[in-house]
Amino acid sequence: MNPAGIGAATVRGDLGEHEERQLAWAYLSRVVLGPCPALTALIDSVGVCEAARAVRERALPPVLRTVTERRRELDTAARDLETIRTRGGRLVTPDDAEWPAWRMLGLAQLTPGRDPDGALPLVFWVRGHRNLSELTEHALAVVGARCSTGYGDRVAGEITGELAARGWTIVSGAAFGIDGTAHRAALTVGGATIAVMACGADRAYPTQHERLIARIAETGLVISEYPPGTFARKHHFLARNRLIAALADGVLVVEAGMRSGARNTVKWARRIGRPALAVPGSVESAASAGCHRMIRDGEAVLVTGTAEVLAETAPSRLPLSTGSKSSEVDRPGGPEARILAALPATGGRWPHDISAMTGLEAAEVRAALVALDMSGAAARGEAGWFRLDRAGEGGE
Amino acid sequence: MNPAGIGAATVRGDLGEHEERQLAWAYLSRVVLGPCPALTALIDSVGVCEAARAVRERALPPVLRTVTERRRELDTAARDLETIRTRGGRLVTPDDAEWPAWRMLGLAQLTPGRDPDGALPLVFWVRGHRNLSELTEHALAVVGARCSTGYGDRVAGEITGELAARGWTIVSGAAFGIDGTAHRAALTVGGATIAVMACGADRAYPTQHERLIARIAETGLVISEYPPGTFARKHHFLARNRLIAALADGVLVVEAGMRSGARNTVKWARRIGRPALAVPGSVESAASAGCHRMIRDGEAVLVTGTAEVLAETAPSRLPLSTGSKSSEVDRPGGPEARILAALPATGGRWPHDISAMTGLEAAEVRAALVALDMSGAAARGEAGWFRLDRAGEGGE
């Protein structure tokens, strides 16, 4: 194969600058197959087209020559771009407006020498119609055990569904177990979800999730830093985890065995300054052992439900309840004050009944209850919601 | 009634000094019915006999006159001492060698003005033959929900039984639920347990636990700072909780509702510098909500089993495993090294099988596994114990 593709095209002069750059990015993505700090540094310094030419002509420092040697003659850029296009996708590069630049800041601030595997992604191969940058504006990563239990699936489904319904994008890895549950819960409520793949964005891994992944691409995004056709390899999963952490406001782990990959995602979250949250469970369940270990070791904060996830992840990013300000609780006649007045101090009352008592919509009641929970004014017990009077400790 | 009891006895000269002082302590215990910092200060300054005389003769500063006025003429000291003796008990005072002075240091260091309810106990009315000071040398307080679940009872029973079998004394409050389970588990393994009562030590509260409390007195201790016959009152429970915390090396909470009294015991533990531990559970269980809240708020450390309780409570107080030093893991041929060699890296193996493979006693295997767990060399999963290789993060 004559590795002249881009250079020749430029000479022909029939390519726009954008297309030329796209070809250069695609070519380099195929050559390095994943993150490559040395190449990113070269692109930063000479531009992507010049970098592609240097790689092709081996006009490189030794370290880059080594990592590019094996595939530098393999210029499938045009074909790769065509492949992703036929799958309803595109190549998103740092040239594009939708490149999630601010999401990548955490990775950008890591020291390449000290964190070679924490490198910035070169590009994102993307399937789906949504804008990657917009879709990750309010996002939560939800990951966990592949061998999840019914408990984990229920909790992941509930929290994920509630957040997705509130406009949060759910980012996960399309794996069996908690990942799949999180994507499905987001889809069920008509919310947005992003699957970050360890294989090419045109492939399905695990293959049993082919339909799920196709559904995600329909309303959300399926993305990968690997070019089309790439098979999932073991080290891809670890690299992929850094992107899951980087693309979200926080990482929630619902069930994780003692040696779960979720812990790796949490490690990334902490390295790039994102909150890491974990749901506790029975100490008799091996599927919760990793969560407990992370909470115990201070790697993750214990959360028991949506309100606490919101409190930890972005306390001031989204309004706490529809159409109300946080001072609502103190304003007589506001929905939260009315709901608070309808709550018993002992026992409990369910949203349906509160709605009937106050004449407020059920959705408004639920949103206000979350805000009241977060502000410590109310809590949910076995018998429903109750008012919390902070004066005494009470009881035995 | 002529309030001349002790004074008259002293005049008669037929009482030894010890008995005279016992009568003075007993008299004052009845007068104040619980902790009284002002009285403790007076005793410290003039001695217990002089303090008793001053109370009886109203030769007191106004604050003490007020709190002693109501019962100062009620001298039932001799009868109270007789009552506790007929129940196989005695009065333990700061005069006695078995007074747990070092256990009371935490309370002694609180500022009486700022922590009026954190006062030192005047005395302990005690049922049982064991020495109070010796019995609290290695002690864990185990408290929790009165409405415990099967899960909570299993976990409390397992941890408590294992610690009691290792020689730890279990301190609790004889209440329904976790308290009762903890006492019973200690008794079952032939271990020591102490019930700290909110009523007189001669009474049973709750009455349904009369047999349990009697069994505790047979092999352990039933103690109270209230004189015989005292009924349990609401404020006694809160005051009693400080003694549960003070008498142990740490407080373990197994299940607690959002407004559980266990949180009050944890508050005391923290104020007097004892570790507070809590067992997580399902976020769907109201009985674990208080534990989660305490872990989340940093009031208690998450623990999942005996090894972690030991690690948090007294890492260097007791040998980690029977007959082995902590360097055993590294010593080839030592029991822990042999057990480690018998553990699989994936899956798991149960103590019974490890015992068969290594030729070690089951008890020795279990003790060594705890040590290996604590040192991070092994962990228990759903399929049994496995070896932990700390090199890689592994997996997805």
From TrEMBL, chains A, B:
Top-level taxonomic group: Bacteria
SUPFAM superfamilies assigned: MCP/YpsA-like
Residue ranges, annotated region (Disordered): 315-334
Residue ranges occupied by any Smf/DprA SLOG domain in the UniProt entry: 91-312
Gene Ontology BP annotations: DNA-mediated transformation
Domain DprA winged helix: 334-381
InterPro entries: DprA (IPR003488), DprA_WH (IPR041614), DrpA_SLOG (IPR057666)
Similarity remark: Belongs to the DprA/Smf family.
Name of the featured protein: DNA-protecting protein DprA
